[in-house]
Write a structure and sequence with these properties.
Low-confidence stretches: 1-11, 106-111, 221-226, 488-501
Number of domains: 3
Largest sheet: 6 strands, mixed
Oligomer: single chain
Domain vWA-MoxR associated protein C-terminal: 249-481
Region (Disordered): 478-501
Structural class: alpha/beta
Number of strands: 10
Domain Effector-associated: 18-98
Strand content: 5-15%
Domain vWA-MoxR associated protein middle region: 115-216
InterPro entries: EAD2, VMAP-M0, VMAP_C
Number of helices: 19
């Protein structure tokens, strides 16, 4: 299966499925069957696809069946959908995604990167231990999409990984880049010459001789590889549209120091307990696999209004353990707004306020004008809050008077659509004075607020009554518009902006 890096994400299977999920008829099993009937008529032959437990799984099955059946099938599927949803923007986006996928499939089919004889020759040149930094050189060539899963990082693993990864547009295939980097790092001149001769032959066959020469000129020494990387695990959780009590989880992982390139996972579905256990597994995978060399792992939950008050920072790191280890005690844990991510009309002001937050110097007194305290969730409070945020353009952090309500987002809605990137609240009504005292003590550490809240959670675990301490009940929305994972499209189901009352 082809691996995709973050820059290729808009052309990936995951992005296409996201687009299809946003088309209302495709969320209904009966309408999906009708689309398949229309598709079969267009192809002149039946296409039977099993209906799976969730809408997303069924759509993945349909798309994969189309790709296997006929080069025209995906485009014909979008034509069939358009008959049911003429003029739909999500359908137009799905069509663009299909065109990109078809073009990339054709490119991959046309490029058999190396023959088996060439592959065996390269393995012979590599030897048993071509470099103590094999995994780092693989990443330098291919970015974060390259993950060697073998414990001993054998050369055969490196080649298998690199051959599955696409080059950037107009770029050199990662396998050829890797060979160049390895030749530059080789201590043995004979091995270096052999690697370059092999690469020259492949480059000539692929019409990339000039590109390889340019890479070689820049590789007088082996490429610098960043020693420390901050890894991000972004986890989207939302209710399943078809099954009450079921949550759908998708996560993205990022550990590339050069640019924001999150890698998207396949979805996971289950009840809340299953999701909590799944979260513990994701952290374990990060610690033992893709982020084991990171200097830090930061965890962000992308949540809709209805789930914002989940105590995700208190979820157990080790499911089933007799000694709980809260997630937010060991990692910087924040929540982000899924509704804002899917509402481009709110993004300009969001970016502006975030840019202002980044200008706040660390270690100095934070101007009072950057903070605003909400007075409550009643109609008069919300209309006043909306007016204040419209007038006070330097506000970047909002302290909520009450926790978000799943039925009425109230203060959060006002803050989200006004572009406020930081919001903080107490998840329960009790101990309000203690909460306010703690937050006031943190006003001058706004740039480091995420870490200071982690430390506050640590103090909570040392208290006489940990579960009732403020640190165990505080949520932080820390929403960075520079780290998107959601396509900026309408959501899978319409979001009703609850009127302030």
């Amino acid at each position: 299966m082809t691996l995709w890096n973050g820059a290729d994400y808009p052309s990936s299977l995951g992005f296409l499925i996201d687009c299809l999920e946003q088309i209302p008829p495709l969320r209904d099993p009966g309408s999906r069957r009708l689309c398949l009937e229309l598709l079969s008529d267009r192809l002149g032959k039946p296409l039977v696809v099993e209906e799976l437990p969730t809408a997303r799984a069924s759509l993945i099955g349909i798309v994969q069946a189309c790709r296997r059946r006929d080069p025209r099938a995906l485009s014909a599927f979008v034509d069939a959908i358009e008959q049911m949803e003429p003029g739909s923007i999500p359908v137009q986006r799905a069509r663009s995604a299909v065109e990109d996928m078809v073009a990339l499939d054709e490119d991959r089919a046309a490029l058999d990167l190396v023959t088996e004889d060439d592959r065996q020759e390269l393995l012979h040149l590599l030897g048993e231990n071509p470099s103590g930094r094999l995994a780092e050189l693989v990443r330098a060539a291919a970015g974060p999409a390259a993950e060697l899963t073998s414990a001993d990082h054998r050369p055969a693993d490196a080649l298998a990984t690199l051959e599955r990864i696409n080059a950037q547009p107009d770029g050199v295939p990662p396998l050829l880049l890797f060979v160049e980097y390895l030749a530059a790092a080789a201590a043995d001149d004979r091995r270096a010459a052999g690697l370059r001769a092999w690469n020259d032959r492949q480059a000539a066959r692929l019409g990339m001789t000039e590109q390889i020469k340019a890479v070689r000129l820049m590789q007088a020494t082996e490429p610098a590889v960043a020693e420390k990387v901050v890894a991000y695990l972004v986890v989207r959780i939302e209710p399943d549209l078809l099954e009450a009590g079921t949550l759908v989880v998708v996560h993205w992982r990022h550990n590339d120091p050069a640019a924001w390139r999150p890698l998207r996972s396949e979805p996971f579905s289950g009840n809340l307990d299953a999701v909590r256990a799944h979260m513990a597994e994701l952290v374990a995978e990060a610690e033992t696999g893709w982020a084991k060399d990171a200097s830090a792992i930061r965890i962000e939950f992308l949540l809709p209004y209805s789930l914002l008050n989940l105590p995700v920072d208190q979820w157990d790191l080790e499911a089933g353990s007799s000694l709980p280890r809260p997630l937010g005690l060991h990692y910087q844990v924040v929540v982000r707004s899924l509704d804002r991510a899917r509402s481009p009309r709110w993004h300009r002001e969001w970016r502006r306020r975030w840019d202002l937050l980044k200008q706040v110097p660390a270690g100095l007194t934070t101007p009072e004008e950057h903070w605003l305290w909400s007075d409550g969730a009643k109609w008069r409070h919300l209309t006043a809050l909306d007016a204040k945020l419209a007038a006070q353009k330097k506000v970047v952090s909002l302290v909520l008077r009450s926790a978000p309500d799943s039925a009425d987002p109230g203060e959060v809605l006002v803050g989200v659509r006004s572009g406020v990137p930081v919001m903080i609240w107490h998840r329960v009504e009790s101990a309000r004075p203690a909460f306010e005292a703690e937050i006031k003590s943190l006003r001058d550490v706004l740039p480091e607020l995420v870490e200071h809240l982690r430390l506050l959670r640590g103090r909570a675990r040392q208290a006489a009554r940990p579960d009732s301490h403020v640190g165990s009940r505080v949520s932080l929305l820390w929403d960075d518009p520079a780290r998107p994972v959601e396509p900026q499209d309408p959501p899978a189901a319409p979001i009703e902006e609850v009127p302030v009352r």
